[in-house]
């Protein structure tokens, strides 16, 4: 069905593998297919968690496809950015939790792709960079906006303006990734996290995600009001009744 990605769904966990070896560069076809798969996974009630990774062990995504971009006119580049931006927003706004399993280089658009995910697990061999400054351009996939929201303005400017490559441990120390594991254990760790998330209330998880993502774009007062409305929404659900009953009965809840 897809040309540039592989999709496997097992036990409620969807694994999306970016498949343009050897370094999985992002081109317009892959962006379009990422948008399509995001819509497919959002609509599939059997999917509770999404893992995104790269094929091979060299790169997650080594950046955008420069061979496609280098001869584009500004008008064509604008259309390219519309497609890429729509894909990243679709991935970011999936109501289900998403995990980036970063198996290698995450440069440029690859690093920006990880920023659309809720969790970032990194192989110890992975490296990260936003090197667009070294090409005389700036990130165009959300890097100047999502990165400072995640790391703070000072650290984000350092990575954006210098374009330096950092290793997985440095990425973890600054908060770019949640955890670093050996490459051989990356997918097992990602699936273990996915199974843990799948065992939570899917409604509560999706509302937490929406509350955080939307609240970041509000002032504190508006965000707190938004949280209260979402809390009441979740409080009316069957999962809340099951969670409260399980707590009182000292058993593990079975969320539906």
Brief descriptors of the model:
256 residues; alpha/beta; 2-enoyl-CoA Hydratase, Chain A, domain 1; Lyase 2-enoyl-coa Hydratase, Chain  A, domain 2; four-stranded mixed beta sheet; 10 strands; Enoyl-CoA_hydra/iso
Whole-number average pLDDT?
96
The ordered string of helix (H) and strand (E) elements is EEHEEHHEEHEEHHEHEHHHH
The percentage helix is 40-55%
CATH topology term of the largest domain: 2-enoyl-CoA Hydratase, Chain A, domain 1
CATH homologous superfamily descriptor of the largest domain: 2-enoyl-CoA Hydratase, Chain A, domain 1
Characterize the overall form: globular
CATH hierarchy, class of the largest domain: Alpha Beta
By CATH, the architecture of the largest domain is named: Alpha-Beta Complex
Main structural class: alpha/beta
Strand order of the largest sheet: 1-2-3-5-7-10
How many structural domains are formed by the residues? 2
Family: Belongs to the enoyl-CoA hydratase/isomerase family.
Protein name: Enoyl-CoA hydratase
GO biological process, one term: fatty acid beta-oxidation
Keywords: Lyase
What does this structure look like?
- The structure is a single chain.
- This protein has eleven helices and ten strands.
- The chain has 256 residues and is of the alpha/beta class.
- The strands form two sheets. A six-stranded mixed beta sheet has the order 1-2-3-5-7-10, with helices on both faces. Strands 4-6-8-9 form a four-stranded mixed beta sheet.
- The two termini are 30 Å apart.
- The mean pLDDT is 96.
- It comes from Syntrophus gentianae.
- Belongs to the enoyl-CoA hydratase/isomerase family.
- One of its GO terms (molecular function) is hydro-lyase activity.
- Keywords: Lyase.
């Amino acid at each position: 069905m897809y040309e540039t990605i592989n999709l496997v769904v097992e036990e409620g966990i969807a694994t999306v593998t970016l498949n343009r070896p050897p370094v999985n560069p992002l081109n317009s076809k892959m962006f379009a297919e990422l948008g399509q798969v995001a819509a497919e996974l959002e609509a599939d009630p059997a999917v509770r968690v999404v893992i995104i990774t790269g094929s091979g062990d060299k790169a997650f995504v080594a950046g955008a496809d420069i061979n496609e971009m280098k001869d584009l006119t500004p008008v064509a580049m604008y259309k390219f950015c519309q497609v890429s931006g729509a894909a990243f927003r679709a991935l970011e706004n999936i109501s289900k939790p998403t995990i980036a399993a970063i198996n290698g280089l995450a440069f440029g658009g690859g690093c920006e792709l990880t920023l659309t995910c809720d969790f970032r697990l990194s192989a110890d061999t992975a490296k990260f960079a936003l090197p667009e400054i070294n090409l005389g351009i700036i990130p165009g996939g959300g890097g100047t906006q999502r990165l400072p929201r995640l790391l703070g303005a000072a650290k984000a400017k350092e990575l954006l303006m210098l374009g330096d490559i950092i290793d997985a441990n440095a990425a973890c120390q600054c908060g770019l990734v949640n955890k670093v594991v050996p490459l051989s254990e990356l997918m097992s760790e990602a699936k273990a996290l996915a199974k843990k998330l799948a065992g939570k209330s899917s409604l509560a998880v999706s509302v937490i995600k929406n509350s955080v993502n939307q609240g970041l774009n509000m002032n504190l007062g508006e965000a707190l009001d938004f949280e209260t409305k979402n809390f009441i929404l979740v409080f009316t659900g069957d999962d809340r009744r099951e969670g409260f009953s399980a707590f009182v009965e000292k058993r593990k809840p079975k969320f539906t």
